[in-house]
Amino acid sequence: MNLKRNVLAYLVVPTFGQSEASVHVRDGLFDEAGDIDEGSKKFLQNWIDHYVAWVKKHAA
């Protein structure tokens, strides 16, 4: 946990536990139309869905 997150925790500010999503660019990640492969699309959609739910939970 970095210093910024420690300060936020001390101040009882909610933080998103899975704050980063990484996609490794590799051959086959994008098709001819430039669309991302299905596995990566599902991974990113899952991350976005969890992030949106977290924001809604903590929105003022």
Give a description of the structure.
This protein has 60 residues and is mainly α. The protein has one domain. It contains 2 helices and no strands. The longest helix is centred in the C-terminal third of the chain and has 21 residues. The mean pLDDT is 86.
Largest sheet: none
Task: Classify the secondary structure makeup into a structural class.
Answer: mainly alpha
Give the percentage of residues in beta strands: under 5%
Number of strands: 0
Rounded to the nearest angstrom, the radius of gyration is: 16 Å
List the main descriptive attributes of the protein structure presented here.
mainly alpha, 60 residues, 2 helices, elongated
Q: How would you briefly describe this protein structure?
A:
The protein has one domain (3-58). 48% of the residues lie in helices and 0% in strands.
Helix and strand topology:
Layout (H helix, E strand, L loop, with lengths): L2 H8 L27 H21 L2
